[in-house]
Amino acid sequence: MKSPLLRRLTALALAAFALQARADEIQVAVAANFSAAAQKIAAAFEHDTGNTVKLSFGATGKFYAQIVAGAPFDVLLAADQATPARLVDEGKGVAATRRTYAVGKLVLWSADPALVDARGEVLKSDRYKHLSVADAKLAPYGQAAKETLEQLKLTEAVRTRLVTAENIGQAWQFVSTGNAEIGFVALGQVQPPDGSKAPGSMWLVPENLYTPIRQDAVAIAGAHSAATAAAFVDYLGGDKAHAVIKAYGYGW
Amino acid sequence: MDWAADLQAVTLTLKLAAVVTALLLVVGTPLAWWLARTPSRWKAPLSAVVALPLVLPPTVLGFYLLMLMGPHGVVGAATQALGIGLLPFSFAGLVIASMLYSMPFVVQPLQGAFEAVGARPLEAAATLRAGPWDRFAHVALPLARRGVVTAAVLGFAHTVGEFGVVLMIGGNVPGATRVISTQLYSHVEAMEYPQAHRLAALLLVFSFAVLCGVYRLRPRGALPGVAVEGAGGPP
């Protein structure tokens, strides 16, 4: 170890090793509708903190069942408020970390650029055979679509044209393949995050027509790296995360 | 969710399975007959196509059907040109998808049964001046009747248990595409466990009875297909 260069390199390697040892890895379960945004936020968090974030995407209800069964998740980004609240009640979620990280926005969307007008009048017309919605029992966006139709007094008029998807991803799929002419989906699904013009046509449903779609996050109790888990949930409320959340069509 | 909706799903499922089984016997019998007897080099690729639904995840099959049958797909363009409209979200669409999906469960037992008949009884019939149709209808088919029954029962049962394909192209329309399996799935996802248990019990008892019947018919040998794949599990 005579060479100063070698000594410096050794010091560097040791420092890197020490950093590595302090850096945590957390496992985050993400509601499917937030997948793309979560990837961006996780990358920023990794860059800023040196920790590693592993993301899993899926349905909130399934994640709930898995967490209760002991799945090794550190954080849940749910599609609703009820699931994190329930986890906290059952002692599986850390109460202090629960926060609303995103508020989803509902849009009426068509892959046809000329079909949906700026006021959603198309809903009252007979210019569509199928209206795609997510199941109101299973998906918060489905519930919001149901409330919107009720507010517009159109429930009965569209009843026979309704096709129900298991989740908001499938509702989008029915419309994007053209099998349903129009459908209620999440703004985040049809608004390109780079700000370019969205494909097709859409009507941003006024927010007084449905209960806000609040999506809550919570750190899971007994996470193997509780501090990092809490830090990640906290990071969701920061400026960098907010910029991403907004770009993907969510409020907070 | 009330009992009436469940009952409607049960009725629809039975109707779907009956229509699919009848059509599959009509389409599958000549196909199986040909596969059992042909020396053609197309035999292997065609058998593989028939067996594909055993291997492909049902949701994948359903997704491609959704694209094919949609307005931008080949099948969708054809059905629209013929004035039938689009097939997804309709009973007719479900019938076609189920036929593809249950095809191996009907064709394979039939093919096996026809192969087991062998060439000798048919040659004997031919020397007695029986024409091709006579040889098929009065010699081969009666000799292969166990295979026909097995094919019908398996086709019916497999259609009843179908889930992934229906989920992808059905759209859960009451009375048209909401079948037992999707209704059961909704109950489970919505944590309506009592309703889910009731439907699940019904499906379980039915499937058990069907399989018992089939095994009684075929005391020796395994069931084609059944060992390869469960009855249409979740995606």
Q: What can you tell me about this protein's structure?
A:
The complex is a heterodimer of chains A (about 250) and B (about 240). Chain A is of the alpha/beta class and about 250 residues long. Helices cover about 40% and strands about 20% of the residues of chain A. Chain A is built from ten helices and ten strands. Chain A has helices spanning about 5-20, 35-50, 60-70, 80-90, 140-150, 155-160, 170-175, 185-190, 225-235, 240-245, and strands spanning about 25-30, 50-60, 75, 100-105, 105-110, 130-135, 160-165, 180-185, 200-205, 215-220. In chain A, the strands form two sheets. A five-stranded mixed sheet of chain A has the order 2-1-3-10-4, with helices on both faces. A five-stranded mixed sheet of chain A has the order 7-6-8-5-9, with helices on both faces. In chain A, strand 1 (about 25-30), helix 2 and strand 2 form a beta-alpha-beta unit. Chain B has about 240 residues and is mainly α. Chain B has one domain: MetI-like (MetI-like fold, Orthogonal Bundle). Chain B is about 75% helix and about 0% strand. Chain B is built from eleven helices and no strands. In chain B, helix 1 (about 5-35) packs parallel to helix 5 (about 90-115) and helix 8 packs antiparallel against helix 11. Mean pLDDT of chain B is about 85; it is low at about 225-235. Classes of the chains: A alpha/beta (about 250), B mainly alpha (about 240). At the A-B interface, strand 7 and helix 7 of A face helix 3, helix 9 and helix 10 of B.
A few lines on this structure:
The complex is a heterodimer of chains A (252) and B (235). Chain A is α/β, with parallel strands linked by helices and 252 residues long.
